[in-house]
């Protein structure tokens, strides 16, 4: 998701610390972190960083592990399934039976994927009694089932109606009809085959040809044939009393089977003495579809005649239930894929981190442990020139908006980094960044005040009272010359502090051309050429927090309540990488 | 966190403030005022067009004909602390039934942010919805609570967007979910008293601070 500048992403280090379980202890004991981990600067351009950077609102926090938790270090558990179009909850038993698709009237357009509507084709001048016929139509691209020759009698139960009709309006036989038909054809073929065997003995099959002259078996036909074939095979294999439908644990057959699995090897051997190899499907009625080059030839002919425009885009093809189709005329409306509501647990300690209310329409949570309540929010904004800052009393009086999409290379620009503390204890912050940003466009970065304190997140009213008592608390870190003084914070409030960062955006084209170490010309060119997003100025910042917290928070619920009453305080430390997206460097 | 576009230097008295704290730009175009309700502390920025004139025209059984002055019917209702940014158009959805164009009331909840240059014809937008710039929402679409609609998205008519989802693209598709912390202002008790220029509001959260800052 593209975000507007400036933005801040927070890194969850779970991808390179596979010591999740021990890390809980590490934070409190302040054990020394491995050297190489300490030395290494975080590179937001590294491909792996894609998977560890998150906006703050996507991160959770495990209070027991005292660590940030991202999508990858939580376990999700599905609480409910629902259809995004009709917002009906689907019970989990139905999910198993019908799959993760809505079986109501919800369909997506096979062409553009937007939600389809049921529309009436009723002629207003001559209305029919039922108001029909009806079609499914797309309100966005205006594709409708009319184009594949499907109309519905009723405006409800579209799924059932659609499952019975093939494109062009041909009826699709039901499962029962299919079974019956298969038996009939099989018998017929068997009889013919017998006759032929007697007559000639050859296996040439005019009967198969006869079948093929019909429409080739559809995907569903083949599937039902194959599944029926396997069912009969399994039935023939397993003891007579055991049927594949009979899978309840209470039935004697499955009980015997399970006992068999866990019994001693001797009984197993006895069973294995008469292995009958399972036969594979060998005909159309058993679900075997033999590739026929004629169908390919026909397809090519059709593309020749009708052109590419009638064929499907890969995305359209993949969204179809039957992935083997090629033409627009074969499209079927796509039943809506269900969405889920999920709870989240910490992967290392299994504590619940987030649990939404079960109601589909509710956005509330029963439990929600957010990172933004535990780690400071960092935000960056451009600092207008120091001179204009004096008149910065009203937010509306700000100078022409700073263009974050065109940072001027080579010109020192000042930004304010604002940290607000969500904790109820004051925090000592240490910021660190490498002097130049990683990547080909090297920008120089200086945090003018890397060490400072951020006040506790006390009552909101304290701030109001404080500011009314001492309105001139703000002493911008400007020295006599109007220069920003290093080592001084810019401004502070109740639970926030802001410091100045000086950034000198790098040049998109290296000033010293031909200085690269590349051997041959081709390689040099490649080096100089900028990749996509190379003009993006992102500053990795290492944030380390030190604070004293009540023991209560950690021992909450588990420990002896008396201990927490004592009000013991412990020193705690927290550290993480954050990446601040400043903007894009303008070409010179 | 996008900044509303119309915060540039405006002449004094850009907004007319009503008793309930609604701020309506003098440069907005509002037609059919009688059919529009604003919940209070709601901002209508410049060049916004509210089509209150497109209200339901069903002849009510009590009055004889609709040709005479029809009773005031709500065409657009907007909740509290909602911001409609510059250049957006709010047009009640319509459909043709029995040959007559019928308009249906457009309802928008509380703390909804509508970015600049949007065209909204939804039937209902719930609370805490964030709509980025240049979004088109088709007729009768339903946007549930806590939804984020990305820049330039076209929500097709009749689409239902379930709560907590992020939609984008043309036509709109559900491309993700907002994070658990979306709409929760940071710093536990909110970032009240932040430095100048630091946003005191977050997407999908309480927009009171944003409304307050618009002058
Ligand atoms: Zn993680
Ligand atoms: Zn549905
Ligand atoms: Zn479509
Ligand atoms: Zn944990």
UniProtKB/TrEMBL annotation, chain A:
Residues 175-198, 205-215 have a biased composition (Basic and acidic residues). This is Dynactin subunit 4. Keywords: Acetylation, Coiled coil, Cytoplasm, Cytoskeleton, Isopeptide bond, Phosphoprotein, Ubl conjugation. Residues 26-48, 166-223 are annotated as: Disordered. Belongs to the dynactin subunit 4 family. Pfam families: Dynactin_p62. InterPro entries: DCTN4. Subunit of dynactin, a multiprotein complex part of a tripartite complex with dynein and a adapter, such as BICDL1, BICD2 or HOOK3. The dynactin complex is built around ACTR1A/ACTB filament and consists of an actin-related filament composed of a shoulder domain, a pointed end and a barbed end. Its length is defined by its flexible shoulder domain. The soulder is composed of 2 DCTN1 subunits, 4 DCTN2 and 2 DCTN3. The 4 DCNT2 (via N-terminus) bind the ACTR1A filament and act as molecular rulers to determine the length. The pointed end is important for binding dynein-dynactin cargo adapters.
From TrEMBL, chain B:
It is found in: Cytoplasm, Cytoskeleton. Residues 1-10 have a biased composition (Basic residues). Residues 59-71 have a biased composition (Low complexity). One of its GO terms (cellular component) is dynactin complex. Residues 1-23, 54-74 are annotated as: Disordered. Its main location: cytoplasm. Keywords: Cytoplasm, Cytoskeleton. Belongs to the dynactin subunits 5/6 family. Dynactin subunit 5 subfamily. This is Dynactin subunit 5.
